[in-house]
Amino acid sequence: MVKVSIIGSTGIIGKNVAFTLAREDTVDEIVMFSRPQSLEKAKGETYDMYDALASEDIDCKLTPSCDFNDLTGSAIVLIAAGTPRKEGMKRLDLAIPNAKIVTYYSKKIAEYAPDTIILVATNPVDVMTTVAFKASGFKRKKVIGVGNHLDSLRLKNYFSRYLDINSSEVHTRVIGEHGDHMVPLLSSTTIGGIPLKYFIEQVDIDVFGLVNQLRNAGNTIITKKGATEYGPAFAISNLISTIITDSHKVLTVSAYLDGEIADVRDVSLGIPAVISKNGIAMIVPIHMNDYEQKEFLKASEILKIATDEVFENLDE
Fold first, then answer.
1. What Å distances lie between residue 52 and 41, 62, 112, 195, 263, CA to CA?
2. Is the distance from CB of 77 to CB of 102 less than 8 angstroms?
3. Which residue, 11, 157, 161, 283, has fewest beta-carbon neighbours within 10 Å?
4. Closest to 194 measured CA to CA, from 214, 176, 169, 219
C-alpha cells in the first residue's frame, strides 16, 4: 500500500496535487493534512474529489486529517504549506515567514514519519529545501525540493509552441534558483536531436524572448489569475509518481549540494538528479559553458546569503 501525505492540502497547490495524483491512480491513500481550523475544508475537498474520481472508477482513499499520527507510513510527505506569493512579490520575499512553517512541519515529519521522503514545494523552494533538510535531520537524498522541474517543463513547452513541433522532440533543462536567477542550459538544449546552436542557424528563434518569458512566467500567471496552480500541481505530481514507481528518471530538482556541481556546498539549488523510490539516487554531472557556470555560481551565492539570513532569524 502506497501512502502520500500532503501538508497544506487545502491550499491551491496542495489540493490540485492531491486531485492530479489521485487521478494517476498510482497511490492507494492520500492524507489531506491541514491545520485544525481548516479540517472541514479538507473534508469538503475530499467529498468533491470523490465525486469526480467515481466517474473514472478510481478508488484512491482520501483522508482528511489534522492528526500527525496519520503521517506514519507515508512514502512521501509533501510540504506545500506556507504564505503564497502575491503579485509583484519575489519568491525570496517569503523566506523568513515560510521557514518557520517548514521548520515546524519538518520536525513533526521526522517524529511521525522518519522513513519517508520529504518533498518541498513551499517557496522560496531552494531555501526551504535546506531548511527542511536541517530541521528534519534526514539524509540529503531524502529531502527534495520541486526546484526547476517546472521551469524545465515550461521552457520545453515554449520551444515546442514557438516552433510548432511535438514537445517530445525538445530536450532542455533549467538549473540554479527557482526564481530570478534560474539558468537555462541552452548549450546542451537539443531540438529533434540537433543542438540548439546549430538549429538556430537554420530557423529563426527568439531565444532571448523565450528565456525572458520563462523568468517571468510565474508572476505573469499570478498577475492575470491570482495564482499558479495547474503547472505546479502537474510538475509535483509527476515528481511524486517518479519516486513511487522507482522510474529512475533524470529530473531537475532542488538538492542540498556538497561539491557535486561546480564545487558548490552548503546550499540547495536546482540540479539534474536520478530520482528513485529512495529519493535522489545520483546527482548527474553536467556540462556548462562559461556563462552558464558563472550564472550558476551567482545563483548559489545569492541563495547562500538568503539561506544564512533565514537561519539567523530562526535562531532569534
1. 17, 13, 31, 43, 48
2. no
3. 161
4. 169
Q: CA 1 to CA 110: how far, in whole Å?
A: 21
Residues 80-96: tens digit of each pLDDT: 998 776 666 665 678 88
- List pLDDT tens digits, range 133-159: 999 999 999 999 998 999 999 999 999
Q: Of 135, 70, 147, 69, whose CA–CA distance to 101 is shortest?
A: 135
Amino acid letter at 178?
H
CA distance 189 to 158: 13
* Contact yes or no for 182/176 (Cβ under 8 A): yes
| Rounded Cα–Cα distance for residues 116 and 127 (Å) | 20
Q: What integer is the mean pLDDT of 25-33?
A: 94
Q: Which of 149, 171, 178, 181 is catalytic?
A: 178
Active-site annotation holds for 178: yes
pTM of the model: 0.93
Peptide bond into 124 cis (omega under 30): yes
Q: How sure is the predictor about 316, in pLDDT bands with cuts at 50, 70 and 90?
A: low
Decide the pairing of beta strands 76-79 and 61-65.
unpaired
